[in-house]
Amino acid sequence: MFYGYATGTFSARKIERATSESMPCHFLAGGLHPEHDTMANLRKTFLQALQDLLVHILLYAQEIGGLTLGHISLDGTKLHADASKSSAISAKRLLELDSQLGPAVDTGFALTEHAEQTEGPEGVGIANEMAFRHERLANLAKAHAVLDARAQERYEAEQAAYDATVRERAAPSRQTGAPPRGRSPTPPPPGPRDKAQYHGTAPESRIMKNSNNDGFEQHDNAQAAVEQESFLIVASPLSNHPNAQAEASPPLDAIPLALGKPQAGALEHGYCSATNIAAMEARDSEPYSAPARTPHHPSWQSYCAPPPALPPADASPKVQMASKLQSELGAAIYRLRKCTVEPVLGMIKDIWGFRQCSLRGWPAAAGAWCLVCRAFHLKRRHILTTS
After folding, report:
1. Dihedral (C-alpha) 192, 196, 201, 204: value to the nearest 10 degrees?
2. Residue 386 belongs to what H/E stretch?
């Protein structure tokens, strides 16, 4: 199974066929041909145990000198969930269904009382129809609860970002005495938005923007923390957040304690926030994250420009971060992000072809992503031991 994943074969049926058609798989299977349902049940039953192999693989790489947890690069990618976006329902549509099912239930109760007094029409099961509508009402209540919880989480994050923006706008005014320039930011509204989506078969996944076709699909957000020297993935959590604002802490927490703490971390510009910077500093890791998207081909004036002056002590974290990236050390660490974590994600998605989790459910999808990362570890460890 690991060899199949490491060579871009993720289907249990294709792995079963490979034991007859591929010499490496035939050798690894010992001449046996296990059925696809056997391998699917193996993967489903021991998914957590397969995820725990990460610690042993990383510790072995550290033992042979192939891994020294120094600087890490952090980035994320969208994986298509095992769900269709056409089955999702919006918060506005939920309210419409509530208004439709309410009168339908009242009508059903009236028909039930009438059927007790007179003989009902043949072939009509009023009790079954009522049970079906009660089940739909329960599912709608569950959907409302999930959307309300997501809306509260979104509101707290946007409110924190709003407060940070207000403080950044007020900082120059305290020095110059002039009012802030530009339009004042608008505070975020509470409650779920009309276009907020809920999926019944895969409630953990969310509608996210897809950069490939400029559309929206049902996705999971996969994260990868890659050690810059060895290119090994030291943490690979999965979340359902559409952006990276809250994704800096989970990879740091997922790094095995036996490996130690990374000295520094290069994060994509989407992670740059006062909360994530403070979270990394609290873990004794120096963050390096661009406050905005950096151009792919900077002009020669940017290379020849003199180093900027140090920001004041009361400057915002983003202003201080921008100044730190202008230093020689900060530029060197952040420059390695593009040539460490992005090639790893590109190999998994473009070369191996892993773009969708075929397992449904939150633990299963996270396990599938972790299993792919374990296969990458084995392939990378082979390169480290033979080079």
Report:
1. -70
2. helix 362-386
d(CA 216, CA 236): 24
Q: What angle do CA 351, 353, 356 make, to 5 degrees?
A: 150
State whether 354 and 227 are in the same domain: yes
Residue ranges making up the domain that contains 245: 46-83+205-386
The verdict on pTM exceeding 0.85 is no
Q: Determine, yes or no, domain membership for 7.
A: no
| Amino acid, res. 82 | D
Residue pair 261/234 in contact by the 8 Å Cβ criterion: no
DSSP for 210-266 reads ETTTTEEEEEEEEEEEEETTT--EEE--EE--SSSTT-SHHHHHHS-GGG---SEEE
Four-residue CA torsion sign, 286, 291, 292, 298? negative
The DSSP symbol for 209 reads E
Instruction: Convert the pLDDT of each residue in 144-155 to its tens digit.
Output: 888 888 888 888
pLDDT-derived band at 63, boundaries 50, 70, 90:
confident
CATH of the domain at 330: 3.30.420.10
Instruction: Supply φ then ψ for residue 287, to 5 degrees.
Output: -85, 145
Angle separating helix axes 328-335 and 317-325, nearest 10 degrees:
90
Q: Given a cut of 60, is residue 111 above it in pLDDT?
A: no
Contact, 140 vs 94, CB < 8 A?
yes
